[in-house]
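ESCALATION

Customer reports they have been waiting on this structure for their group meeting. Please prioritize. Original submission:
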Amino acid sequence: MFRRRPEPAAELGPEVVHDGPSPVLVVDDGTFFDLTEGGWTVVDFWAGWCAPCRSFAPVYEAVARAHDGPVRFAKCDVDANPRTAQLLQIRSIPTLVVFGPDGSEVGRSQGVVSRGDLEATVRQLAARPV
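Update from on-call: job pushed to the front of the queue and completed.
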């Protein structure tokens, strides 16, 4: 399980990148530490060639749109961001990782998750204090 070690501010990446009007943030090797602390964050680790990842993407997007609020949603392309994938030891995709307010990993699931299960997780996180 990933535990955050403080990173110097000088090593943090560029500004948050939004993928169009989507509420899903794009995490990359430069923005990972900034975007996964300060609140509950669910990150979908995926790749463009992965059929299960592509089938799960619309479900993830729909849940993110439905639950815009205390829980943030992000995605990270493991092929384009190998440093982050290696740091978190992502071995199969899709993998969802939940980060707590301090940026440490609090949960993980591998494979496609049903919309109901993802929504239940988001509701549980939203009920927790930040």
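Sent to customer with the following note: Strands lie at 17-18, 24-26, 40-46, 71-77, 95-99, 105-110.
Escalation resolved.
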